[in-house]
From TrEMBL:
This protein's UniProt keywords: Coiled coil, TPR repeat
Top-level division of the source organism's lineage: Eukaryota
Protein name: Tetratricopeptide repeat protein 5 isoform X2
UniProt keyword annotation of ATP-binding present: no
Organism: Physeter macrocephalus (Sperm whale)
């Protein structure tokens, strides 16, 4: 009898796997068969497809519904929506108890716990899966969950972020053509960017990872999270046109998600305020403005007052006093500008703080979680 059951499982597993693969393909490739105008229906369409798939699976399963791999595939089908499913947790928990080395069941159970809000349990699942077999899905998910773990200090959080980057890199190394790995690496770099003082090199690494995700995976361009995260980075780097485009694209791809629309409106409000203050010169009266300009003296350059600057490495640099109009985009070596703060303007996130004369930018460290 046991042998007959094993044969039956071997016979039906490919059919079940095909049904589940088709379900996930429907979700991931939704915009290949639907227009962006259908974005508001996507989640409902996925749920309907899930119900249809579960019914088809039930017809195939028969008497072997209690087998580990059958439980895993059924739990995975239930896990296709963004909502937490108690039934999926029940089935996947049974699957890992019956077959502790079933890595895909551990990965699916970790995602269920993540949706449930139990980040520690999700971390345990993904870490445990890697003890059985090194695989890119566990590495991808571990990279994400590390950034969400509760910590007691900023140093501990920074270590988790660094570890997150390492796990994401390992996932990419396992399959350089996996767009999800590249996307998650971009998110890890984004977190690192905000937790380590906003190094421009790290921001470029994040942008490169996002671009690579879109290059190797045709569905990445339909990922609203990618567009939102990349737009956030563009905003903090003051690439406002790209930021607005990204927020708008994320909102179009997921109309039920309020955050992209809120971020876009916040940025538009900020730019409108900035434009108004620039046009009115910070609403500073003409006499006061002339007084501020008249008080500017080369001596106010402090240690650079004699036209020379010594870097931290000991190198001496000769400086040239230049007006803002003479500066070029990028690094202007050997140039020094003297100015007065006319007004300051902050975003709701408090970073960056814009101090125009007409516009200077000062950035202070922030956090990304």
């Amino acid at each position: 009898m046991m042998a007959e059951e094993e044969e039956e499982v071997k016979e039906i597993l490919p059919k079940l796997q095909e049904l589940v693969d088709q379900l996930y393909s429907f979700r991931e490739c939704y915009f290949e068969t639907h227009g962006v105008e259908d974005a508001g229906r996507k989640q409902q369409d996925v749920r309907e497809e899930m119900e249809k798939t579960l019914q088809q699976m039930e017809e195939v399963v028969g008497s072997v519904q209690g087998k580990a791999q059958v439980l895993m595939l059924t739990g995975k089908a239930l896990n296709v929506t963004p909502d937490y499913s108690p039934k999926a947790e029940e089935l996947l928990s049974k699957a890992v108890k019956l077959e502790p080395k079933l890595v895909e069941a551990w990965n699916q159970l970790g995602e269920v716990y993540w949706k449930k809000g139990d980040v520690a349990a999700a971390h345990t699942c993904f870490s445990g899966a890697l003890t059985h077999c090194k695989n890119k899905v566990s590495l991808q998910n571990l990279s994400m969950v590390l950034r969400q773990l509760r910590t007691d200090s900023g140093d501990e959080h920074s270590r988790h972020v660094m570890d997150s980057v390492r796990q994401a890199k390992l996932a990419v190394q396992m399959d350089i053509l996996d767009g999800r790995s590249w996307y998650i690496l971009g998110n890890a770099y984004l977190s690192l960017y905000f937790s380590t003082g906003q190094n421009p090199k790290i921001s470029q690494q994040a942008l490169s990872a996002y671009a690579q995700a879109e290059k190797v995976d045709r569905t990445a361009s339909s990922n609203p999270d990618l567009h939102l995260n990349r737009a956030t980075l563009h905003k903090y780097e003051e690439n406002y046109a790209e930021a607005l485009e990204g927020f708008s694209r994320a909102a179009a791809l997921d109309p039920a998600w309020p955050e992209p629309q809120q971020r876009e409106q916040q940025l538009l409000d900020f730019l409108n305020r900035l434009t108004s203050l620039l046009e009115s010169k910070g609403k500073v009266k003409t006499r006061k403005l002339q007084s501020m300009l008249g008080s500017l003296r080369p001596a106010h350059l402090g240690p650079c007052g004699d036209g020379r600057y010594q870097s931290a490495s000991g190198q001496k640099v000769t400086l040239e006093h230049k007006p803002l109009s003479a500066l070029q985009p990028g690094v202007n070596s050997g140039a020094v500008v003297l100015g007065k703060v006319v007004f300051s303007l902050t975003m709701e996130e408090k970073v960056p703080l814009t101090i125009p004369f007409p516009v200077f930018v000062w950035r202070r460290p922030s956090c990304w979680w």
